[in-house]
Amino acid sequence: MADMAVAPLTITKDRQRVVDFTKPFMMLGISIMIKKPDKQKPGVFSFMYPLSNRVWLCVMIAFVTVSLILFLVGRWSPYEWTKDGSKGGSPTNTFTLFNTFWFSLGALMQQGSDIFPRSYSGRIVGSAWWFFTLILISSYTANLAAFLTIERLLPPIKSADDLLKHPEIEYGTLKTGSSRTFFETSLVSTYAKMWQFMNANFDKVMKTEIQQGVEQVQTSKGKYAFLLESTWNIYWNQRKPCKTMKVGDNLDSKGYGIATVQGHFLRTPLNIAVLNLREIGELHKLEQKWWYAKGECGMDSKDAITSALTLSHVSGIFHILVGGLVLAMCIALIEFFIHRHIRIRKKKQVKSTGVRIVKKQPMEALKEVGYIDREQQPM
């Protein structure tokens, strides 16, 4: 009888009853293997992919809101009104409803406009909107390059729940081993339903060897998923013809260990050796060497899935924009009331002087001051 067994033995409670295991030298879990989907080239509307639909909607709402608030600020603030000599000195305002939308659009497109706010409140609105557009356009541009240059992989399956949602995709695992035991004894409803399907189609979906499952994944045209330990999944994905891939997170967590006879003296020195190799990084180095560096498929950067910027990524600039708009509204009201107070006080001062202004014709005014004789008739 052998004293120990060095192999990819998964540490389970049933095996622990008959042998002793060392500390795990590699962590793993049950994972999903599917056929690599065809790469999708950028579409006609790929320029909209860098931002999610909610972000696009919020940007449009922000654009309209800023334009309307800038219009109101222009009406409230007395510093946005100027006297136009061509209109008899009547006050005019450049921030009409059309002009405010044009100002906001010019800033959003990084082009500017021919009108600018003169009041403090208007400048606060403009500054907040400029900062918003600066961060938004920078984030959009950085993400746009990835969407236009990367041929994206869009797998139909990303988790075990997706397998239940796609009845047209069959799935299975090994007929014997810890992977089958996991599904057979699981109390999680998702995994229990998966075992019901696998047990009902046992001969069709269950495999004797891992290679059989991998070959069916490669030839099934995306209609079969194989459930196996993540170490084997990653290993086979790095082997030609490079048609398979691992999707989603592992369904559980466990480890490989070295088995020894129960109570054997080798268990303690083996544990120390495994822990030492892990601490100095030797186990990680070996994993990178044999699973990735010596792989036949390489690390294809094009396989990375680029995700759109969601609202949580850019919510900060919306907060700053809202804060700037609220501050501008408050300052516009303060400017309005201060100007109103000054105007009322000036009117009171004019009334208190007792000066009465009477409009007269120029000739009458000259007669009153004696420059023209009242009895003298014009020639």
At a glance:
By secondary structure, the chain is of the alpha+beta class. It has helices at residues 13-16, 53-76, 97-108, 120-149, 160-165, 178-185, 189-200, 202-205, 210-219, 230-237, 267-279, 282-293, 311-352, 362-368; strands at residues 4-5, 20-21, 26-28, 30-35, 81-83, 91-93, 170-172, 224-229, 244-247, 254-256, 259-260.
Describe the structure.
It is built from 14 helices and eleven strands. The chain is of the alpha+beta class. It folds into two domains: 4-41 and 152-303, Periplasmic binding protein-like II (D-Maltodextrin-Binding Protein, domain 2, 3-Layer(aba) Sandwich), CATH 3.40.190.10; 46-150 and 310-367, no CATH class. The strands form four sheets. Strands 7-8-4-9 form a four-stranded mixed sheet, with helices on both faces. A hairpin with a 7-residue loop joins strand 5 and strand 6 (91-93). The N and C termini lie far apart (146 Å). The model has no long low-confidence stretch (mean pLDDT 82). InterPro entries: Glu/Gly-bd, Iono_Glu_rcpt_met, Ionotropic_Glu_rcpt, Iontro_rcpt_C. It is found in: Postsynaptic cell membrane. Keywords: Cell membrane, Disulfide bond, Glycoprotein, Ion channel, Ion transport, Ligand-gated ion channel, Membrane, Postsynaptic cell membrane, Receptor, Synapse, Transmembrane, Transmembrane helix, Transport. This is Ionotropic glutamate receptor C-terminal domain-containing protein. The chain crosses the membrane at residues 55-76, 96-116, 128-150, 316-338.
